[in-house]
Amino acid sequence: MSIVDALTLYAAEHAPTVERPDVILGSVESLGEFWAGMTVAQITKKTCKDYVTWRTAQPDSRYKDPEKAPRISDQTARRELEDLRSALGYAVGENKLNRVPVVHLPDKAPAVERWLTRDEAARLLWAAWKPCWGQTKPTNMKDENWRELKYMSRHLARFILCALYTGTRKSATLGLQWLPNTVSGRVDLERRLIYRKAQRQAQTNKKQTPVPISGRLLPHLKRWKRFSTTHVIEFEGAPVANVKRSWVSAVQRAGLSDDVTPHVLRHTFATWAMQSGQPIPLVAGAMGTSEKIVRDVYGHHHPDFLRDVVDAVGSY
């Protein structure tokens, strides 16, 4: 069986059933370019290593200037090879292939534990709310254009507050709507709940459990609803698909490092919850993840972490 045939089958039949088919389709495109003309039997440790070398020499296509764009990371290549392995497994399940060959992956990078302090979070939020604060209006710019520029990233402030006070992932936060729907989550102000997934949406590994709306977030949501159409995060009346550009600008204005990504808000939620002494099962439930992940990744932030051990030794 050709590798491209296995990838095509996976993209056509499996990708439409997942929450982010675009991720699989992106992987299939890159994998297909490298493995074109090769059969499954040609998947070896060397060819997998060659794929990583080839992929990490390419610029990130999200940047306009290929010369200035960063190279693709080995972790991206690793995820794409994982998709290749899944595609081969799918082909076996469809009786198109007898077995799944070993797909050799580069080493997995250690987990990133970056989170924001209260001061850093305040600076980031202020940078999103007042992007041009302290700057002088250019002499050739109209007043109405200057006002629009000053407040053009306030949708980012909404995103930051929602993600920071609920621990919800970026895509689920951006998809939040005010009314029940079949494509994304919604905000229920009457019950003070945020439903992270749509009605009748299939459950995935990302649990997307409902989360209560905190007392700090509730007044913001009530105010935003009066000035919104369908989505919680909007720009000029339209839903926001991505916050990449406004996020990078706000991080720079806030004087934060480049490792502060939107996912850091979820890490911050978990870290603050653990630092306040909240039980691990409750933190896991609020985040929609497993207790093991919370314990392994954030457990050391808990004020009672290993306290029983040192107390036991001290009383021996």
From TrEMBL:
<dbReference type="InterPro" id="IPR002104">
    <property type="entry name" value="Integrase_catalytic"/>
</dbReference>
<feature type="domain" description="Tyr recombinase">
    <location>
        <begin position="136"/>
        <end position="311"/>
    </location>
</feature>
<dbReference type="InterPro" id="IPR011010">
    <property type="entry name" value="DNA_brk_join_enz"/>
</dbReference>
<dbReference type="Pfam" id="PF00589">
    <property type="entry name" value="Phage_integrase"/>
</dbReference>
<keyword id="KW-0233">DNA recombination</keyword>
<protein>
    <submittedName>
        <fullName>Site-specific integrase</fullName>
    </submittedName>
</protein>
<dbReference type="InterPro" id="IPR013762">
    <property type="entry name" value="Integrase-like_cat_sf"/>
</dbReference>
<keyword id="KW-0229">DNA integration</keyword>
<dbReference type="InterPro" id="IPR050090">
    <property type="entry name" value="Tyrosine_recombinase_XerCD"/>
</dbReference>
